[in-house]
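Course assignment 3, question 2. Fill in each field.
Student: A.L.
Task: Predict the tertiary structure for the chain below.
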Amino acid sequence: MKVMKRCSKCGKNKPLNDFWQARSKSHGRDWRCKECKREYMREYNKRPTSRELRRKQKPRKSERERIYLKKLRKKAFEVIANGQPIKCLRQKEWKCCSYSDFDFLTFDHIYNDGAEDRKKSLVAQKLYGWIIKNPQEARKKLQILCRNAQAKKELERIRRAQLFDYSLRT
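Answer field:
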């Protein structure tokens, strides 16, 4: 005599072989028959993933927004430069770059307090707006560096920290 089991989805009595094995269940079989499970999985796989849902909710920046952000960034550079040519502050000292392309220039925190600004969520558009609204304070706090100079500054900071740590150990 075949052992039968009732499918909780369709309500039909079927042999145990028509149910998938499920070790977590007390009787060792899934609560839906294979047909009902296949139907469920087909529908489940048609649903959009969370990544696809996020993509639909948050559209990419439009070309107009990108142009606006670029203009805002340029205006912020002009504020920090204060009438001087917009170029890397360490260009002559470190010979790190010979161009003033806006894509390679960055705002650098003079006193390495950028983490505090990031906690206040002063990023990109908000940072540029803050620079334009508070030019005096921004000039005291920020400088224009190329990406190479900023990387070199960070490397020097790390090296100084390592030397300091080494002197404490001896």
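Instructor remarks: The longest strand covers residues 29-33. The CA atoms of residues 148 and 169 lie 32 Å apart.
Grade: pending
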